[in-house]
Specification:
The structure is a homodimer. By secondary structure, chain A is an alpha/beta fold. The first copy, chain A, contains 13 helices and 12 strands. In chain A, α1 crosses α2 and α8 runs parallel beside α9 (155-161). Chain A is elongated and about 65 Å long.
């Protein structure tokens, strides 16, 4: 079936899934664009509800399309209709709507791991997605997204995460609660702070079970959360501070390297 | 003097300085917005040609305004005119135009240092600015921007660099030439590659004089440049790769920590 009208019901729904969190929440669906994310979602075993492919997209990405056809309903749309849905300047013409996993009950599972990243009020979608990608790449085994974080299922987070969000176990839950429960499971929890008197990254041998909290780009880790944690400082030589995603990268590297020996 | 027309000559010039590289090059001026960048530029001793302050900005940031008044011509503009110039949604109402330093002849000076970051075709302005900020923060002493990099004097790079671009010595020059000259000055030069057979970051003790090349976000380090370098791999556990700015952060951390002992 070829969808030729911008007002087609599926076209309208798809457009709103990309742009409106409340529609994603109501439908229990996320939306993503591009062949890379579509393939990563399939590989990760996510349930894809449906896909839209532009006429151009089906010519350019026949393999992705046939993969999708095996897994869900695929609608073909005209290039014009696709462009009216897409949030991208030069879209590849591949859109998927997939089931959001309810990860809110997953904290116990996440705490079975050893190395965890906790994010306090990371509002920038690009930063959030990048941190998830970096964490997965460097061997962090789970993430906790505290209140005030960007919607992890927004298209911008999915894109910046390059699919890591489909794989890295994470849950959204109050950090105060997550920290209390992590401590019960023998985690040591640090908050990354711009505080030269804190313990210095690089000097510190992280305990086997360690969680690190990264704060908001402008304001850092909130006081209430920080109070529950040991303080961790990345020694800064020039400049005033690191961008939150850069700080996360350095911390994930140090945290993840602890057991590099096991991975060789 | 209060500027009340969007068509005022200075207003037009300011708008174009923000948005057009060719105007910046022709005038030899960069343009930046916000009190933070204005203060950092002054602190770094850059020559500010003129500043624009909106009526709102002069109420909110009297200290920055009086600092600027001591250093350059300051024009007050109506909030409407300021908004017509600004590239930001909620501008602070502070604009500066400052002299671009000709850094192209600086390679010899940069090579007097020990730890250098070289960027090959980093096209994203936000990434480029973040890398400069990260490099300065973590103790890298200079940067070389190869061809294909974003304009380091663009407002977006300046903003992402949080002023580091005013301080970190850098120059724009062909990387092939820069690498040859660095080797003549006893540098060891590595290219960060997604190549598991390369030397691994973390295993490697960097020589005293080390330069590392970070490549383009999508394509990595170009073949011609890579050929001249040792290969360096960041061990990746999950995901396929790191975002270029995250890779730069991890590498700057390892490169900069070599002499943390001197900084304590």
């Amino acid at each position: 079936m070829l969808i030729t009208s911008r007002k087609n019901e599926t076209a309208v729904k798809s457009r709103r899934l990309l742009s409106e969190k409340k529609i994603r929440d109501r439908e229990g669906l996320f939306a993503a664009e591009g062949f890379k994310l579509a393939e990563e979602a399939l590989k990760a075993g996510l349930e894809i509800e449906y896909a839209l492919i532009s006429e151009e997209g089906s010519e350019k990405f026949p393999q992705t399309v046939s993969l999708l056809e095996k897994n869900c309903t695929v609608f073909t749309v005209t290039n014009e209709v696709y462009q009216s849905i897409s949030e991208q300047k030069s879209p590849q013409g591949i859109f998927i709507a997939g089931k959001i996993l309810d990860k809110s009950v997953n904290l116990d599972k996440i705490l079975e791991n050893d190395k965890i990243l906790m994010l306090d009020c990371v509002q920038d979608s690009g930063n959030l997605g990048t941190m998830i990608r970096t964490a997965e790449a460097l061997g962090i085994e789970g993430a906790v997204l505290g209140s005030g974080c960007a919607d992890p299922w927004s298209p911008k987070v999915l894109r910046a995460s390059m699919g890591s969000i489909f794989r890295l176990p994470f849950c959204g839950i109050s950090l105060s609660e997550a920290i209390d429960r992590a401590k019960e499971k023998d985690f040591t929890v640090y908050a990354a702070m711009l505080d030269g008197t804190a313990q210095r990254l690089g000097d510190l041998d992280f305990p086997k079970k360690t969680a690190v909290v990264i704060g908001n780009e402008g304001h850092g880790v909130g006081a209430e959360v920080a109070e529950k944690c040991g303080k961790l400082y990345i020694p800064i030589k020039g400049a005033e501070s690191l961008n939150a995603a850069a700080a996360a990268a350095v911390i994930c590297w140090e945290l993840g390297r602890n057991d590099t020996s096991q991975n060789r």
